[in-house]
């Protein structure tokens, strides 16, 4: 089930310096602090924190959420041209698509993130799981059902996935420090 493919981890363009390079590229004041930079094989996602809107002390949770969403929406519109110019530079340097996101209070919104197709072969028991989710109205299609399953695993196995990513990073570092056989 968890096959090993060494070439799947190979990256054509190194991204070791991406978070620092991007932090240096961003203009001061775009976000309230350093951005969160998330990188995979296909995409670089930059998420920045925006200042929380000022509301009355007795504002309801719904009003706070609406104000945060409004702050993010305004940021998205006001910085569109600037973010496009920056994204082009990032995409050129790292040969990956680039997307943006913003955090404001408890609200996180991602803009134009990449939706990459993933092909897989499933046996009948796995297909039945997806079909059950579709039939129950949890998902619109097998594709949506599979994405739902991946999100669910990510939520419930986050620490394990974090540990696994750390272990893979250690293996990559040991591989880099090892003898050159080529």
Protein topology:
Layout: H1 18-25, E1 36-39, E2 43-49, H2 61-78, H3 80-94, E3 97-104, E4 107-111, H4 124-135, H5 142-156, H6 158-177
Helix pairs in contact: 4-5
Question: How is this structure best described in words?
Answer:
This protein is of the alpha+beta class. The protein folds into two domains: 14-116; 118-182, no CATH class. It has six helices and four strands, in the order αββααββααα. Strands 1-2-3-4 form a four-stranded mixed β-sheet. α4 crosses α5 (142-156). Mean pLDDT is 89; it is low at 1-11.
Reported for the largest beta sheet, the result is: 4 strands, mixed
Q: List how many beta strands DSSP finds.
A: 4
SSE run: HEEHHEEHHH
The tally of domains stands at: 2
Low confidence ranges: 1-11
Rg over CA atoms, rounded to whole Å, is 20 Å
Q: What portion of residues is helical?
A: 40-55%
Q: Spatial order of the strands in the main sheet?
A: 1-2-3-4
Mean pLDDT score, rounded?
Answer: 89
Q: Tell me the β content.
A: 5-15%
Class by SSE composition:
alpha+beta
- What characteristic shape results from the CA principal axes? globular
Distance between the termini: 31 Å
How many alpha or pi helices?
A: 6
Task: Offer a few descriptive terms.
single chain; 182 residues; alpha+beta; 2 domains; 4-stranded mixed sheet; disordered N terminus
